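[User]
Protein folding is very new to me. Any chance you could explain this protein sequence and its structure tokens? I have pasted everything here:
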Amino acid sequence: MVLSSPLITKFKGWLLVEEKNKKLSIEEVRLRIEEKRLDIDNSFAKKWLPTLVTLMAGLIAGMFSYVQQQNAIQTTEQTRIEAKSRAEREWGFKVIEMYFSKHEFFDLSKNPEQAESNLRVLAAVAPVAVQSVLNAERSKIPAPTGINDLNRLDSLSAVAGVQDALKKVRQSEQIAAKSFKPPDFTIYLQYPQNSKDVAIKTQNYLINLGYNTPSIDKVNKAPSRLQVRYYRSEQRYFAEKLATKLGTVLKLSTSSDNTILLTSLKQLPSGILEVWLPQE
């Protein structure tokens, strides 16, 4: 069958239209693809991702450096505290030895000015030993007689000077003690016969405060007063606060005498306290 010329012309025209439509469709697809690519190129992620990666890398490096710095600071501080505690124990033994061998250096009744000067200096390195010496010497000062006794006033003034020096040391220790928390300590609880119920009550109270109190132990000989015994001089203020709390809960009288620093020729560890319940 042979197509007539008008039909051929019409068919060719239809083919041209179809071809043109196909080209338009392809062009539309290409345009849409290009628009999508431009949208992606201009998107937040594409535009800011390199910057964000750089910032995150710097932040992680900074955090790692900060952690390392804090660890170094804590290690240095712990070393400093241990060295201070060791030095105080050594100086404490020396002070007591000098007190008995060269008593005239600490005699507040006969040589108040010299004794005050010596004790003020030693208070910075051995406050516990100096406090013991001060207590002993203060008890030797004569009672008031109603007469203007200049020697007695000089002795009392010397006592006040040593007390001021010890107060400054305690304030420094209080600042250090603020860093301590109950979870930092394990407490060994000792109780006398017939006081197990009180011991269990005390143990539960300590556990609720956050202390690690693994056990309670009965002892044959107990102190006459509640005692909190500590191993490091920088823990004194913390021990005193604990003794006050226990005294309130157990309805026992407390004072600075309720805390005792345990000393040894060998180094004792940090993070340990002893609570001794009194004999009823």
Remarks:
- The helical segments are 5-41, 44-101, 112-123, 127-138, 150-177, 196-209, 236-250.
- The chain has a mean pLDDT of 77.
- The longest helix spans residues 44-101.
- The chain has seven helices and five strands.
